[in-house]
TrEMBL record:
Belongs to the class-III pyridoxal-phosphate-dependent aminotransferase family. The keyword Metal-binding does not apply. Keywords: Aminotransferase, Pyridoxal phosphate, Transferase. It comes from the Bacteria. It comes from Sphingobium nicotianae. Its cofactor is pyridoxal 5'-phosphate. SUPFAM superfamilies: PLP-dependent transferases. GO terms for molecular function: pyridoxal phosphate binding; transaminase activity. The lineage of its organism: Bacteria, Pseudomonadati, Pseudomonadota, Alphaproteobacteria, Sphingomonadales. This is Aminotransferase class III-fold pyridoxal phosphate-dependent enzyme. The keyword ATP-binding does not apply.
């Protein structure tokens, strides 16, 4: 496949999808096949996938693909008929949560899961206000776009939304300063008459750049929100399904139990299935005043896929694997970053890392250099991305099939690219 043919495809895409539909990389990449932690372009050239959390248990995992095909041959239908698989998935999924989180509603996307969580919180509390971090992404619906800060959005911040900074010492935000901002957000929502329905946070703070938040900080934040009459919604789209290596759910790292948990991307290994998990009391109080159903969310094929993903996580011991392979990668990354003063800090846990890049002379975020590194790593056959307020934190978040040999491959190339004269 020549560059010319890629250009032609790009042109056709822009013509039919519009030119503002985003693509990764300065030179967009056409990927046609995937297997485990590897993806292959139109010429059959392989790339190590160190970016995608959608193919959570590995690209095209045969157990998941077989389960999907088997069920697609039987029936796929609206979720308002009885079918054993949606019940089985609900039972298996809720069994991974702490009491009293024991009921689930299925959706197709993380956005929908967060929307439903907000509706449950609003119905239960009688309040409308939503508190989010000041560099968040939770979805593309109208409610969420009005509270999103990490993407350019023409929508003004919604009148019911307030933000606060999460602790991050490299941005000079202490736990105390963060809680003071939260206090202000709560006071402002009360004053405006919206009140506090919920605080919605990604429990690994991925858009924010994986800051290592102090132990006990999220507990204090949750207490303040509860005292104001609101609920805590934990968005597990990023840390969920074992990525942290410290259990299935990211909230466990903080030693608390949220009121509502949402999940998505990794749940279907590429198939669109997502969910909102909460307590029976909350879901029932919502159900008494409202009605929720989702034509596709948790349909028999999606449920078969969701079950197969849970099988693989269990059978292949992927949570322990994330811990072991993650610790190995951190050791090896630490061994090279001393050679590259542009790397200020490494963050993350399990199989999710961030390398913060700053100009060693000025101390300013090295956003352009991070962009160069991401594009050069693509040439070297490794897919990465960037996160953080200044897009200066290299984002390494591979499928969980990523092992020590893949870490070696990545780190050798990263060492080379970081060392290139600019
Ligand atoms: N929450 C978080 C933390 C996310 O990262 C994303 C997607 N990147 C979403 C919600 C939205 O999920 P979806 O694209 O499935 O709607």
């Amino acid at each position: 496949m020549s560059q010319f043919e890629d250009q032609q495809l790009l042109h056709r895409r822009q013509k039919v999808l519009g030119s503002s539909t985003p693509l990764f990389y300065d030179r967009p990449l056409q990927l046609l096949r995937g297997e485990g932690a590897w993806v292959f372009d139109a010429d059959g050239r392989r790339y190590l996938d160190a970016y995608n959390n959608v193919p959570h248990v590995g690209h095209c995992h045969p157990h998941v693909v077989d389960a999907m095909c088997r069920q697609a041959r039987e029936i796929n239908i609206n979720t308002r008929y009885l079918h054993p698989l949606i019940v089985e998935l609900g039972e298996r999924l809720t069994a991974t949560f702490d009491d009293p989180l024991d009921v689930v509603a299925f959706t197709c996307t993380g956005t929908e899961a967060n929307e439903l969580a907000i509706r449950i919180a609003r119905t239960h509390t009688g309040n409308q206000g939503l508190i989010v971090s000041d560099w968040n992404y939770h979805g593309h619906s109208i409610t969420l776009a009005g509270a999103t800060t990490a993407l350019p959005a023409p929508e003004a911040m919604a009148r019911h939304a307030r933000t606060f900074a999460v602790p991050d010492m490299s941005r000079g935000v202490s736990a105390q300063a963060s809680l003071a901002q939260l206090e202000q957000a709560i006071a402002s929502l009360k004053e405006s008459g919206h009140g506090v329905a919920a605080m919605l946070v990604d429990t690994i703070f991925s858009s924010e750049g994986l800051p290592d938040v102090p132990a006990g900080w999220l507990n204090s934040a949750m207490e303040m929100v509860h005292k104001a009459g609101g609920l805590l919604i934990a968005d597990e789209v990023q840390p969920g399904f074992g990525r942290t290596g410290e259990g299935m759910w990211g909230y466990r790292v903080h030693g608390l139990i949220p009121d509502i948990v949402t999940m998505g991307k990794p749940m279907g290994n590429g198939h669109p299935i997502a969910a909102t998990v909460t307590t029976r009391a909350l879901l029932e109080s919502f159900g008494q005043q409202s009605l929720y159903f989702n034509t596709f969310g948790g349909n028999p094929v999606s449920a078969a896929v969701g079950l197969a993903v849970l099988d693989v996580i269990e059978q292949e011991g992927l949570i322990a694997h994330a811990r072991v392979a993650g610790a190995y990668a951190i050791r090896r990354l630490n061994a090279i970053i001393g050679r590259h003063p542009v790397i200020k800090q490494m963050r993350g846990r399990g199989l999710f890392f961030g390398l913060e890049m700053v100009d060693p002379v000025t101390g300013e975020p090295a956003s352009a250099e991070a962009r160069r590194v991401v594009n050069r790593m693509r040439d070297e056959g490794v897919l990465l991305s960037r996160i953080g307020h200044d897009d200066n934190i290299l984002k390494i978040r591979p499928p969980m099939a990523f092992g020590c040999e893949h870490a070696d491959f990545l780190i050798e190339r990263l060492d080379k690219v970081l060392g290139e004269a600019r």
